[in-house]
Amino acid sequence: MPTFVINAERRVIIWNRACERLTGVPAHEVIGTSDHWRAFYDEQRHCLADLVLMGRPEAMDELYVTHAEPGDSTHGLRAENWCVMPQVKKRLYLAVDAGPIFDEDGALMAVVETLRDQTEQKLAQMALQSLAVKDGLTGLANRRSFDEKLEAEWLHNQREGTSMAVLLMDVDHFKLYNDTYGHQMGDTCLKSVAAAIDKQVFRPSDLAARYGGEEFAVIMPNTDLDGARHVADRLIEAVRELRLPHSASQTEDCVTISLGAAAFIPSDQRGSGDLVAAADAALYRAKHQGRNRVVCADRVAELVEA
């Protein structure tokens, strides 16, 4: 197991072969120095063993992604972190244990730091977490993420007394597109449309999602109907500008979308579902009027043509 030891002066006294292989740093370059940090980071900072020697477990909050709550100081510290590994030129996720060594009088004389490469496990965990919140085809947030975000922002905007908006949109004549070009091209079309939508959703607080099938949605906290309409117009134009051929379309000769927008201030009389329903009704009217357009619902959910 990759291991190194620093003495009470925080100088390296042991740097084993496994540590050499992991870091790409030979022992003769670090033995007797305090430069052990150079094996893991491209900027000077403390390693876990340093914190044990310095008696500074509280610094783990700033330096490590995750860590065990420090208990009895005689048992050392445990943490995990991404390390840039300058010599081997790759980023690794390392699990680290730092244990103190005491002399016969109980004085701290050295610290042993052991390292475990957890990169594959961490990447697998991140992939699973991504699958839980993202749509597998388009990379946008999935329906579950949309529903959770909608409820959270509804409650927040209700407390603040501010308006929030939802946009719902469909790819026009998508069944005809699939029938004409095949399902594989249909998937490619959805990915292209999703990317165009995502590029127009600028604010970190907003969320673009695949709502289902060929339908997409955007949640926009702290946004009134004018602001929602402005973004909706950008989305319509962004998809048009893709110029994806659609010879079977009854609207234009390229892929287009229809969009419904709704915005109002959350209240006890209405729930988040009412906001989505208003946007959905506006989307239905946009399609009924010929598609490739935006229709807005007003604050009492009565539809008005955009």
TrEMBL record:
Positions of the PAS domain: 1-34
Catalytically driven reaction(s): 2 GTP = 3',3'-c-di-GMP + 2 diphosphate
GO MF, any single term: diguanylate cyclase activity
Pfam families: GGDEF, PAS_9
Stored PROSITE patterns: GGDEF, PAC, PAS
Domain GGDEF per the UniProt entry, residue ranges: 162-299
Enzyme class: transferase
Domain PAC as annotated: residue spans: 78-130
GO biological process, one term: negative regulation of bacterial-type flagellum-dependent cell motility
EC number: 2.7.7.65
Superkingdom assignment: Bacteria
UniProt cross-references to CDD domains, sorted A to Z: GGDEF, PAS
An example Gene Ontology CC term for this record: plasma membrane
Name recorded for this polypeptide: diguanylate cyclase
